[in-house]
User: What shape does this take?
Amino acid sequence: MKKDIIRNLTMDFESYSNKTENDIEFWFARDLQHLLGYYEWRNFTKVINKAKTSCETAGHEISDHFVDVNKMVKIGSETERDINDFMLTRFASYLIAQNGDPQKEEIAFAQNYFAVKTRKFEIIEQRIKDWERLNARQKLSLTEKDLSQLIFERTGNDKDFGIIRSKGDKALFGFSTREMKSKLGIKSNRPLADFLPIITIKAKDFATEITIFNVNDKDIKTGQQISWEHIRNNKGVRELLIERGIKPEELPSEEDVKKLERRVKSEDKKFLEKPEKL
Assistant: This one.
């Protein structure tokens, strides 16, 4: 997510923040509805109900975080109507975001914004960067698992995947998996992708997705044919990166994804255990 988008969303979410007499921060559900990109209240209430269930499952009282209120709103020049609304704690707002569609930019932002008890833009931005890299790594793991299963179905050999993946890395980086680990100072028993920047993780994922598609679409059957297909796809992705001025083998390694995952989970755990109540 781009820095200017994060900054603008931070300002939007802060502008709708309210405080109780006891200085507890809260948001109105009707405001949050629009902040999260929901156009119909009926659809948004479905997400709220899922969040209430999550709240109860986590061992917290729903009434501590979702408070029913009524508001008068103008529907004409001299006409008002009474509508129902909710006062939502940061915890309730977080649960609503967690039950929303993470493909929506506003939802992805909110899932991290509400989990961080700070108004510092830099911390929110870093949290989102960590979250995006972690998601990209998890997505690559799933894609590689699909390719591994597909290769086994076609060849009957569970060792072919590692060989084919390394050849793909050679085509993408100009170095084999082992050589890239040595180049970046990564231990031989750790996955290379755990230390790659997000752009390279996504590049590997994209090439692997193309391989899976073509193996199925072209009904490729042998390990050698799958290997050549994977090499071609990684070469194609490399050419695109080089054309855009990105040399994947020259990008520095980043923080171990396992450490990043533990940090994010630790932050979430602390937040979920003792959320502020209304």
